[in-house]
Amino acid sequence: MNTLNNTLTKALPSNSGLMSNLQRLPITEILLLLVAIFWGTSYGLTKEALIFTSVLLFIAVRFSLTSLCMAPIVFKEYREGKNKDWKVAIPSGIILSTIFLCEVYGVSQTSASNAAFLISLSIILTAFFEPLINRTKIPSSLLLLAVTSIVGVYCLTNSGQSTLSLNTGDYFILSAAVLRAVMVTVTKRLSEGKDITTSTLTAIQAFIVAVSALILCFITQPFEAVTLPANSHFWLIMVYLVLCCTLFAFYIQNYAIRKISPTKVSLLMGSEPLFGALFAVVWLNESLTLLQMFGGALILASVLITSVKVSK
Length: 312
What we know:
By secondary structure, the chain is mainly α. Helices cover 77% and strands 0% of the residues. The protein is built from 14 helices and no strands. Helix 5 crosses helix 10 (198-220), helix 6 (112-120) runs parallel beside helix 9 and helix 9 (168-191) packs antiparallel against helix 12 (262-269). The longest helix has 26 residues, at 232-257. The chain is globular.
């Protein structure tokens, strides 16, 4: 990130108005919204991928490929003498393993709308955990925007039911939301001021998820049943999920957690249902009700105000 800024500084004149405007852009916030866009498309694609394989093998393949992609960077950083505090990544990696087990099992057993709403509860849960774990005060404006975003997600994902009935999959998703909130606050607490790069932090987390899923896969399934899918559609989905929704997304999440408030990170990434709905409208030709449009507008307003007005 610093390399990009330095390159732009050299490329543009010192008195350039463009450079001045660029420096004022909330780059971290913009990148988090891009993560939300990718994650907004991931639920439907995950459902498609699970047609061809089991939940555990799906997670193992996704995070093994992510670890392999990150390996050359981590090896280079290790040779340069960086990452003396690499062990701080282990707890968050274990939490992330549990998150994905709950999330993917949940997505396979519940509706996309229920999953989108319940996972968004991590926004308000993060606002609850951050003062407890990190001993930081959260601006009241950020709390208000978090509540507004939750209301928006509920309106956006409401399918006309007056109440939200929960099944086993929903409880898995709800558990994932709690663990998401714990993860971003714990990652902030453990990595702050430590000698570990964001690349290594992301790679170790991905490696722990991959190993955990593989172990569980071989424990719960016969050895001969653990085979990779041969379907090309599965692998196209996997490439997108690995590059955009895992490698890029978790790198940016870890980068942002070390820069700004975990609550702000959760609020911006929690806008994923909005982008999921837009994806369904544009790509799948679905339509939105007035209530859903109102919910989308609330989410959009919340993330825009958070991006440009709310301090760290």
